[in-house]
Specification:
Elements lengths: L1 E3 L9 H7 L8 E3 L7 H5 L5 H13 L5 H11 L13 E5 L2 E5 L10 H4 L2 H11 L5 E7 L3 H10 L5 E8 L5 H8 L6 E7 L2 H13 L1 H9 L2 E5 L5 H4 L2 H14 L9 E6 L4 H12 L3 E8 L4 H8 L1 E3 L20 H8 L4 H13 L2 E3 L2 H10 E5 L2 H15 L5 H17 L5 E5 L7 H9 L9 H12 L19 E4 L3 H9 L3
Parallel strand pairs: 4-14, 5-6, 5-8, 6-7, 7-15, 9-10, 9-14, 10-13
Antiparallel strand pairs: 1-2, 3-4, 11-12
Length: 499
């Protein structure tokens, strides 16, 4: 069963939590208890590691889905028609004790595919299970990657419409073209004159607006979400932490049950939270290292115990982390305070009214046992890309470069030499201008458009252009709607023709 982080909603089954997306009265669904899994049993898995792992882990959380239903979701999502490689998320050795977990081999070249290729199957089955006859409208706020991954996952799915909001001039050109050229008979994309937090806050407000939801209901619509506020989006991400660990054991890079670190570049805290759930399930993790860019609200929080979004918002060269309100932190705090819903409600209220909240000394100590944090500036990000390319011959995207810099700093500070996996969250081609600039200097990109830069980056790096990013400039732009940040609700009403 699933409970609300704010204690304001009855317990629901997995299918209901996934269909609703977030708690209708505000808050997020989390499992009432976290299941554990035997590592000894997992060590015996052979052959199609990712698929079998996914089945075993997912069914622990999806009590009202049959084993056959879970298997059907897994087979339809994790296959070589959707992913470039058979392992889905290959592990590459960067240097001694450091490995890169490539999470970008799905159709949109970002780690969001790992969850958004399977989530539509979860949701379609959930709709049937709860007996809903309404058309589901998925609202998505994106800082760049979730939008395209969600569009790709949900396009042409019967009984579902998907509306994506992204910050106008706040994503890379490639990310923008990925979204605005999306076809499908149920897809809508809107550029918002604001930042990601404006998009995310507006979407959350719509979910909590009972009057507006009543209007939608009367027209035969109900809302859901494909952001990581939806448990069905976060759950599949747990799998690749286990897959990375088991691959290290299989390659005899680590001993069974040896503790390792994971470094995760994150803005909304969903990706690293999935790693924490893996840890609570029994995965031998020594430290989870949270990597931020110059919008370092999470780094500051983990350093001080004060979460304060009252600061300048910066547009950086790692735009998918340009976030000041990290939604999934609410889930994490609920878990580390032993499901103290009253405390979480007050903190979220403080965040909403004063823009900040503070956690107690004991909570801070509990967090410090498992989690470390750091950040990288834009200049440092480019320097790391250059350094890793020069020394290791490996091409990082900007977000993964942030993680590498934070990890290097962590090692210098702590002396911790545990084997470490760094989550690579996007193909370098998604952020081609910054990556090519890092490798060859500013002159290499001056006066060139992104499509030319993609081709040059392919030549310089020796990597083929990701299939999901090829010929974007040849595709027609199908979505041209732009709105102000206070017009998002009206944009939804206009798309759905709600009076």
């Amino acid at each position: 069963m699933y409970v609300s982080t704010r204690g304001n909603y009855e317990k629901v089954k997995a299918s209901e939590a996934i269909k609703l997306g977030m708690v209708p009265r505000g808050g997020l669904f989390v499992p009432e208890s976290i299941p554990t899994i035997s590592m000894e049993e997992l060590y015996k898995i052979d052959g199609d590691l990712y698929q079998e792992l996914a089945e075993r882990i997912l069914k622990l959380y999806l009590d009202d889905y049959s084993a056959e239903e879970v298997k059907d979701c897994v087979i339809n999502a994790y296959n070589t028609a959707n992913f470039e490689c058979e392992s889905m998320a290959p592990l590459v050795k960067l240097k001694d004790k450091t490995y890169i977990l490539e999470l970008w081999h799905g159709p949109t070249a970002a780690f969001k595919d790992m969850a958004l290729q399977i989530m539509p199957y979860f949701l379609s089955k959930a709709i049937k299970k709860v007996g809903s006859e309404k058309e589901v409208v998925i609202l998505v706020a994106t800082s760049g990657d979730t939008g395209k991954a969600a569009l790709e996952g949900f396009k042409n799915v019967p009984g579902i419409k998907i509306i994506v909001f992204f910050p106008y001039d706040g994503v890379s050109k490639v990310q923008e073209l990925q979204m605005t050229t999306t076809d499908g008979n149920n897809t809508y994309v809107v550029a918002v004159k604001g930042n990601f937090d404006d998009c995310q806050s507006a979407v959350k407000d719509i979910f909590a607006d009972t009057g507006f939801k009543g209007s939608l209901d009367s027209q035969g619509y109900e809302l859901s979400s494909a952001n990581s506020i939806n448990w069905g989006r976060l759950l599949p991400q747990i799998v690749y932490y286990f897959s990375a660990y088991l691959e290290l054991v299989k390659k005899q890079e680590i001993e069974p049950d040896e503790k390792i670190n994971f470094v995760v570049p994150t803005g909304n805290f969903g990706n690293i939270l999935a790693g924490w759930y893996a840890y609570k399930m029994g995965l031998p993790i020594n430290k989870l290292i949270c990597a931020s860019n110059e919008n370092k609200v999470l780094t500051d929080f983990f350093s001080t115990g004060v979460y304060d979004r009252n600061r300048e918002f910066k547009q950086t060269n790692s735009p998918s982390m340009d976030i000041l309100i990290s939604s999934n932190l609410e889930r994490f705090l609920f878990e580390v305070t032993n499901h103290d819903a009253e405390k979480i409600s007050q903190r979220m209220k403080d965040l909403n009214t004063a823009g900040k909240f503070t956690v107690g000394e004991q909570t801070k100590k509990d967090i410090d046992k498992i989690l470390a944090a750091g950040f990288a500036s834009e200049k440092e990000t480019l320097a790391v890309i250059n350094e890793v390319f020069s020394n290791e011959g490996y091409t990082l995207d900007t977000h993964t470069a942030v993680a590498v810099k934070v990890y290097n700093e962590y090692v210098q500070k702590t002396g911790d030499r545990s084997k470490t996996v760094i989550a690579a969250t996007a193909s370098p081609f998604k952020f081609n201008s910054s990556v090519l600039e890092a490798i060859k200097g500013k002159e290499a990109i001056r006066g060139k458009d992104e499509i030319d830069i993609v081709k040059e980056l392919s030549e310089v790096s020796g990597l083929p252009v990701h299939p999901g990013l090829k010929d974007l400039d040849q595709k027609p732009v199908l979505h041209k709607t732009v709105c102000e940040k206070d017009e998002i609700k009206q944009a939804v009403a206009d798309i759905l023709e709600i009076k």
